[in-house]
Amino acid sequence: MSRIAYFGPAGTFTEQAARSLADGRELVPVETIPAAMAAVRGGEAELACVPVENSVEGPVTATLDGLAEDSPLVAVAEALLPVHFTVLTRPGTETVRTVASHPHALAQVRHWLELNLPEATTVAASSTAAAAVAVCEGEYDAAVTAPVAARTYPLRVLAEGVADVPDARTRFLLLATPGTLPAPTGADRTSIVASTANRTGALAELLTELASRGINLTRIDARPIKGNFGFYRFFLDIEGHVAEARIGDALAALKRRCDVRFLGSHPRADGVRATVGEMATDEDFAEAATWVEAVRSGRQA
Ligand SMILES: O=C(O)C(=O)Cc1ccccc1
Predict the structure, then answer these.
(1) Average pLDDT estimate for 95-115
(2) Do 141 and 72 share a domain, yes or no?
(3) Percent of residues, the chain, with pLDDT higher than 70
(4) Is the pLDDT of residue 266 over 90?
């Protein structure tokens, strides 16, 4: 049976996301985001499930860096989870002095902690579930976790539905080694990472290649290129599928200008259909290509 390596241990938000995408596959927890990617690169798992962005805290940098470095991986599916937290303690704990969680989780409950546990010190853990494990082992007094962790660990629920920002969401990717692409649906996302030259207008030129082909950009993040201070990579998410003419044409144009890595085309979890700019449908591209062929073969003045 094929396996999905997910950012664990058991009881993370990522496990919840992986479960929603599993389709009968076996789920295998691994300790870090790079380890989940390494499991796919090394062939121990067919797929990896990792968080990629959060509506409050922004990009998950370990995922972005892991996608840009090492051998290529592509996103073949995504999941979008509402993020509200459960606070767990050991049964019998009277005073909470330390609260542990993943930094993204701590950042999303800061206000709640100030109001409800003002004396407690916060401690970063590698994941929300790793914090729950540490509480079980007596290392910290409380953990801020995913709801599923309350069923996974023998801890007491101190609070549920905790979220400073209502309607916070996290998006997760299912990653594979490059192979057959998911079929286009009309509501797809294409992701790339581009390393531009450091000169005036280089980024503007990349974005113009997209804009002039009627492509809507949904996310842009910059990450430093390690060992090269002051140099950045740009992670771009765009609406559409590489099988569509405007997207393929834009990627070819970007490839001529700079170093580009394709990170996948897959259906959007929210089902939002791609905006297609004027004169940018596949039919518009096909008609224009037919006209050029005619010109080249002397059939058109
Ligand atoms: O630590 C987890 O449970 C994760 O899956 C990462 C995460 C952390 C905080 C919000 C959403 C996902």
Answers:
(1) 96
(2) no
(3) 99
(4) yes
How many separate domains does the chain show?
3
Q: Are residues 203 and 261 in the same domain?
A: yes
Binning pLDDT at 50, 70 and 90, where does residue 300 land? confident
What is the arithmetic mean of pLDDT over 30-47? 98
Q: Which atom of ligand 1 is nearest to the CA of 101?
A: 1
What does the alpha-carbon distance between residue 39 and residue 47 come to, in Å, rounded to a whole number?
A: 8
Are residue 204 and residue 277 in the same domain, yes or no?
Answer: yes
ipTM, two decimals, is 0.96
Q: Which of 127, 167, 169, 173 to mutate to test the pocket of ligand 1 (most atoms within 8 A of CB)?
A: 127
Whether residue 172 sits in one domain with residue 39: yes
C-beta 14 within 6 A of ligand 1? yes
For residue 124, is it within any domain?
A: yes
- Pull the structure tokens for residue 162: 């905790």
Q: What pLDDT shows up at residue 25?
A: 97
Range(s) of the domain holding residue 157: 84-162
Distance 284 CA to ligand 1 centre (A): 43
Q: How far is the CA of 7 from the centre of ligand 1 (A)?
A: 9
CATH of the domain at 78: 3.40.190.10
Averaged confidence pLDDT in the chain: 96
Buried b (16+ CB within 10 A) or exposed e, 258-284: eebbbbbbbbbbeeeebebeeebeeeb
pLDDT at residue 253 in the model = 97
Considering the domain boundaries, does residue 40 fall inside one?
Answer: yes
User: How much is the pTM?
Assistant: 0.95
Query: Would 299 be classed as within a structural domain?
Result: no
Q: Record the tokens describing residue 295, joined without a space.
A: 């010109």
- Measured from the Cα of 126, ligand 1's closest atom is 1
